[in-house]
Amino acid sequence: MPNKPNLEKEGTAPSIGTDLGLAARYLRQGLPVGMPTETVYGMAANALDAEAVARVFKAKKRPDFDPLIVHVGQKSPLQDWVREIPSEAQALMSAFWPGPLTLLLPKTERIPGLVTSGLDRVGLRMPRHPLALALLDMLDFPLAAPSANLFGYISPTKALHVREAFGPELPYVLDGGDCEIGLESTIVGFENGKACVYRRGGIESCALARVLGYLPEERIRSEEHPAAPGMLSRHYAPRTPLSILKADQPWPEPDSNVAVILPLAEVHPAHVKVWVLSENKDPYEAARKWYACLREADQAGFSQIFVRMLPEHLPFADALNDKFMRAADSADHWA
Ligand code: TXA
Ligand code: MG
Asked: Based on the structure, what is the number of domains in the chain?
């Protein structure tokens, strides 16, 4: 039988709505608010207020070595937050902001060290969800917002996911519906004047290359010095053991308590418990639905979940397969 979602905090769970004025009031008081973005939901707080930011770390049980992304609106004075914007960063902003691209740039004193975990660079991004943009426009400070999940768990793509995870430490969740992309932003930084990708996400490397004139190198696998903990090989993970279903691997036995997530529809034996992310074989739809499906499968009481990789030539295959492998319970998949 499916387990009930984690609502034991019912009664103290945050309220949900579309009241931008209320969200802005909480934020001005230094309290965090759940915020929709086109990628995943964030837990937002005043990025200039170290106490407000500390509340976010505490609520998420996030280690303080894991820096937060700072979200800016269309009127935000970027020169107040970063010391310099290289011309390539400027070109990427023009091409992809507002949108799912985070740029690591040298921070000014205005950004508290807690936000960047003491690092010299701050991750900046302008989200394109209309509620997030409207909220940012109402405020005279930027918003530090990590994904609104407990550290290491599956990212939230619906307001209800955020409500389920938190109690009174998060008074309000701004409901912007289901996230349009469903994968986190792509993180880009600069090393020796060259752009590098630190996390795969909603903007593909080939799209970055069209603007940069070269394919940026990746710095996405590092256990020792994770410049971005999204780089840890196990992250965004369910509690149920999850493995990759390889092409030559047999389907689960009948009556086994095992579920299979297929990103794209494919022929399978009738006895297999299957979630199909996209019946139309649309990789964008598969990305949009992945986290919500994984969460549902995780809460349904299976003893094992398998997921099929996306064929490599498809759009979003790099980013989505990367998420599948990080969610998997073993690091064996990393060559
Ligand atoms: O799509 C997104 O980026 C979402 C939405 C809410 O905007 N946010 C998000 O935040 O994914 P979070 O905290 O779950 O992941 C942020 C990643 C972390 O892996 C963090 O280490 C990296 O960004 N990051 C943030 N600031 C950084 C910095 N200054 N240097 C290196 N990595 C940084
Ligand atoms: Mg996250």
From this structure: 2
| SS3 label, residue 279 | coil
**308 domain-assigned:** yes
Structural domain for 255, as ranges? 242-334
Nearest atom in ligand 1 to the alpha carbon of residue 43 is: 6
Percentage, residues of the chain above pLDDT 70: 90
Q: Is the same domain home to 168 and 290? A: no
Helix axes 205-212, 87-96, angle to 10 degrees: 120
Tokens read off for 161: 């996911």
Inside any domain, residue 136:
yes
Strand order in the sheet with 33-35: 15-17, 172-174, 33-35, 42-46, 143-144, 69-71, 121-125, 101-106, 186-191, 194-199, 217-218
Of 334, 335, 283, residue with least CA distance to 311: 283
Q: Alpha-carbon Rg of the chain, whole angstroms? A: 20
Rounding to the nearest 10 degrees, give the CA dihedral for residues 54, 235, 164, 137.
Answer: 50
35 and 174 co-located in one domain: yes
Chain segment 280-329, per-residue pLDDT in tens: 999 999 999 999 999 999 999 999 999 999 999 999 999 999 999 988 86
Please state, in angstroms and as integers, the Cα–Cα distance from residue 204 to each residue in 105, 138, 317, following that order: 20, 31, 9
246 and 167 belong to one structural domain: no
What's the rounded Cα separation, in Å, for the pair 190 and 185? 16
What pLDDT is recorded for position 334?
Answer: 38
Band (pLDDT 50/70/90 cuts) for residue 332 is: very low
Q: How far is the CA of 147 from the centre of ligand 2 (A)?
A: 4
Phi, psi angle pair for 304, to nearest 5°: -155, 140
The residue whose CA has the least distance to atom 22 of ligand 1 is 228
Cβ 40 under 6 angstroms from ligand 1? yes
Whether 121 lines ligand 1, by a CB cut-off of 6 Å, is yes
